[in-house]
Design goal:
This protein has 94 residues and is mainly beta. It is built from no helices and eight strands. It has a single domain, classed as Jelly Rolls, CATH 2.60.120.
Length: 94
């Protein structure tokens, strides 16, 4: 099961293209006002669908946002959108 570390400055990280599931997103380091959203996309038209965080979620070290027993599916790809001074997130996916 791949794990991607997201610790970039504000922007979008394309973790995977194509379908899959999010197994876990966990905060490692909070940064300063570091927030995230998880999105499915882009689709053929370049659009995305928000999976986690209708409003951006503050990153908190040690907090998990996905129950590994109930993974969250995505269809077109997995994007993590971050803002603020970089902290760190672990994203586990299949």
């Amino acid at each position: 099961m791949p794990v991607t570390t997201v610790n970039s400055a504000a922007g979008t990280v394309q973790v995977k293209l194509g379908s899959g599931v999010i197994r876990n997103i966990e905060g490692v380091s909070a940064g300063t006002s570091y927030t995230f959203q998880a999105k499915d996309g882009p689709d053929a038209a370049g659009g995305t669908v928000t999976l986690i965080g209708a409003a951006a979620i503050p990153v908190v070290a040690g907090v998990r946002w996905v129950d590994p027993i109930a993974p969250i599916p995505f269809r077109n790809g997995l994007q993590i959108v971050v803002t603020g001074t970089p902290g760190e997130l672990f994203v586990q996916w299949d």
